Amino acid sequence: MSISRSGGQGTSEVGNVDFLRICDGLCYDLSSLQELACRGAWRSVLDKVAQARSKSLLSKPHEHLIYLSYNAIALTKLRRFSEAVAELDLVEKGLDIYRYETYPHHYPNRHGSMAPFVLRWLHAELPSKLGRRQETLDRFYLLLQFIREKLTKNLPNASRQVWSKREGLVINSIISHQLCHKEFGVCLDLMKDLIKRDSTPIARAILMAKLGYIQMQYGDLEGARGTFGVIEGIVNDGNGEIEMKNLVNRNKALMFMVEKDYVSAVREYQECIDRDGSDVVAINNKALCLMYMLCMSWLMLIIRISRRHLAVGLLVWHLMILILRVLAYEAFVDQITNPKSWHIFFIWKKFKNHLFH
């Protein structure tokens, strides 16, 4: 939880206390539950939920739903998907039955659903974790329809913004699942529709970057190049913030990587790093390019420097290790016909310990 500190430490502490009181006023001991979740202490979240349920500390229906949400998220984060699905069995009866007007003695003069949106999203996502991909897609499309029906109503601006963000989240979830099965045509249609709906130039540029990535996977390199060119035009016409300039350079670098021009890709990624030393995508991708170029001494230097300046969690260590292991395996299988891969196999044996120290 981040509280504004613009008024000094004393103001920040007062604001923090007020925020915690608001949280606990909404739901029993919500502040400590939220703090555990922000720290990633998912087992402690499970313990706290179990304790609150066993001692009957939750007196109102919405409190049960909030604790159910945290419990389902914790189980999902711990990859206990079967238990998370069992936790959401009540959703099978329909979340729409959990409405304020159903409990007038608890919520006088209140109307609408009390179900947290995360429950609807998890209800759609979790079947894919158990191998039921089509069920997940069906539920996401139903959820998308539900959201769009909401957006057709006369909503206050704040509510409309929230539901628009939820629409984007669900569409991106659908795209992610479709991409995993190389259904690029559907992904392109969804992304183009999402771009048309977003009016701000910066948001449109970010979405167009995703469109370009899909085009690259689809094999439409010229289409991706054209999309990235439009993004560059949007950024040049705007304020040219560091984040957006880095987006342009990363797009150029990706095109160079596809063409196996790793030297040019490294140059583009270095520009990103020079502007923003915490650009994790640029750092990891530059390291990947250097690995393909067999510049392992520079690769290890980048990793060591990055570890000094970035939180460990920001660097994709498991991805780097996985890539090296895959390359080493490929080299072992193809050691005679591909001398370059055989070279990587020996590099892996020599440098693997550096990734763990």
Automatic annotation (TrEMBL):
Keywords: Membrane, Transmembrane, Transmembrane helix. The chain crosses the membrane at residues 283-303, 310-332. The keyword Transmembrane applies. The keyword GTP-binding does not apply. This is Trafficking protein particle complex subunit 12. It comes from Lactuca virosa.
